[in-house]
Amino acid sequence: MVLFNHSEYSLCPLHTERYTEILWQEIGIQCNGHRQMTSLRNHRRNGGLAMNLTKRLTKWAGMAALASATLLMAAPGGFAASNRVMQRDSAAGGAKYGSFLNKEVHHQLAMLPWYGVFDNLEYTINGNDVTLSGQVVNPSTKRDALASVKHIEGVGKVVDNITVLPLSGFDNQIRRAEYRAIFSEGQLSGYSMGVNPSIHIIVDNGHVTLVGYVDNETDVHLATLRANSVPNVFSVTNNLKVGQRG
After folding, report:
1. CA–CA gap between residue 178 and residue 183 (Å, rounded)
2. Which of 78, 155, 159, 181 could form a disulfide with 131 if both were Cys (CB 3.0 to 4.6 A apart)?
3. Global pTM?
């Protein structure tokens, strides 16, 4: 841009210098303005490219997510089928562990060092929780039973419903007499064999309870007759079952 036409104006050196200074200032302003405008245009152009790239990436990500969801939903049953498979696997694992736990609890109780013919231990299983019940002569048998079950892998809570029978010389006499009366009978003698006898004799203040398993109903009735033959017994309760020996 022409700021001054020197053919029409004659300026003194001082004025010429001042006008020259103004001219260079104006040129600087124009240059700075040009650079700022250029920078602004570049910024807008770069920002537009970045915005355009972001929009494209967002669009591609959305399309990929939609395709993934479509494929999963298009599979047989979609999410519902996957959930059913997980539930079935969980149920199968639970049933397998339940079978293991049942066998392991039975084994641990049967192998207790002081568990014998005058003790009775029973258990129930709910998930991975075990409830122990029954009657024992020695407190150490109760402690050992609880400790052995608590150490089984995967066991949760162990509930103690075991009763320790009271110390009684009278009950001890009945225990010995009942043992002789029942197992001296040839047909019943085999039930006293093994680490865990099939017939257990529980005596509590003169009351006798028979628990366990026998082979047939005849043996159930015979055991009742033999138990009732012992003197000084207040009552006899026969809870023997026909089935596999424990």
Report:
1. 8
2. 159
3. 0.61
